[in-house]
Design brief:
The protein is mostly helical. It has one domain (1-63). It contains one helix and no strands. It has one helix spanning 2-67. The longest helix has 66 residues, at 2-67. The chain starts with a helix and ends in a 10-residue tail after the last helix. Residues 1-23, 58-77 are annotated as: Disordered.
Length: 77
């Protein structure tokens, strides 16, 4: 009887440990997928903002170069 109980207990412990391992693996996979999705979103947003900033800077340079007259430096003899 004690031998059977010990076997059942070992089987139950092994099943429980496997269930816990499976749950951890599933959580790890879900967390990694969420992390990768968020990282991709941040990269896309950063690229979009970079494009907007560069376009704005180019427009500002065009406006500044058109508005400001060019200075002529006098040469020293």
């Amino acid at each position: 009887m004690a031998d059977t109980t010990t076997k059942h207990r070992r089987n139950a412990d092994a099943l429980f440990k496997q269930t816990v391992r499976d749950a951890r693996e599933r959580d790890r996979s879900e967390a990694l997928a969420a992390y990768e999705l968020e990282a991709a979103s941040v990269r896309e947003k950063s690229a979009r903002l970079r494009e907007l900033r560069l376009a704005k800077e180019a427009a500002e340079r065009e406006t500044a170069s058109a508005a400001a007259p060019k200075k002529v430096r006098a040469r020293k003899a």
